């Protein structure tokens, strides 16, 4: 996900600055390697301000996952993929939108809550659960369009449904982020998204565009 443009922090907004710092630093360094000092330095706040708002780094992790869900929810709600009249076109436009926000800066487009879930799923259940709420909650936003596309095309799903396909989108996206990190190559995320596009088109019997992506 793209970072908002940085600007001079405003007084009295230390909590938000810390949450924004967590978004950026954790995606770059990981949760375990991120220290309270790192967060305070990035947010330009004191340790006293940190512990005024969060009793621990884990508490900050939960709040950061919730903040991520709120801010990315607003981003996706206002995204252009909702515009097409045809529900399958909306689903495919969502995939195109996800590809469009993959940049050459790997930490900037990868997923905070995916990173958190990978690191702490067995050690910090409160953070894991907050991350899960964000990941599965976003997947649920696609279910209506997927179901409408199923209905519009008279498809009888065999062993899958709108909910499972929406979760598969997350499987591909999160996996693409991991491969991009592992290979230090954002094109691996783009490749995964392109395969998702092909898969969905074949699943719904929709042709590929005549022009291939570069």
TrEMBL record:
Pfam families: TetR_C_13, TetR_N. Keywords: DNA-binding, Transcription, Transcription regulation. GO terms for molecular function: DNA binding. It comes from the Bacteria. Coiled coil: none annotated. Residues 12-72 form the HTH tetR-type domain. PANTHER family: HTH-TYPE TRANSCRIPTIONAL REGULATOR YJDC, TRANSCRIPTIONAL REGULATORY PROTEIN. This is TetR family transcriptional regulator. It comes from Palleronia aestuarii.
């Amino acid at each position: 996900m793209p970072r908002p443009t940085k600007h001079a922090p405003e007084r009295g907004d230390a909590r938000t600055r810390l949450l924004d710092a967590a978004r950026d630093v954790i995606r770059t360094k990981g949760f375990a390697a991120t220290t309270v000092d790192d967060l305070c330095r990035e947010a330009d706040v004191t340790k006293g301000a940190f512990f005024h708002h969060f009793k621990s780094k884990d508490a900050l992790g939960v709040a950061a996952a919730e903040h991520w869900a709120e801010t990315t929810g607003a981003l996706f709600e206002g995204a252009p993929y909702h515009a097409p009249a045809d529900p399958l076109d909306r689903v495919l436009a969502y995939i195109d939108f996800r590809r469009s926000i993959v940049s050459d800066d790997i930490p900037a487009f990868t997923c905070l809550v995916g990173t958190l879930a990978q690191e702490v799923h067995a050690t910090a259940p409160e953070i894991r659960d907050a991350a899960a709420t964000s990941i599965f909650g976003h997947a649920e936003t696609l279910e209506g369009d997927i179901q409408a596309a199923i209905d519009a095309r008279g498809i009888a799903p065999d062993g899958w449904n709108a909910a499972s396909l929406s979760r598969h989108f997350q499987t591909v996206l999160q996996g693409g982020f991991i491969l991009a990190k592992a290979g230090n190559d954002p094109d691996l995320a783009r490749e995964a998204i392109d395969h998702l596009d092909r898969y969905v088109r074949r699943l719904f019997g929709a042709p590929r565009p005549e022009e291939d992506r570069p």
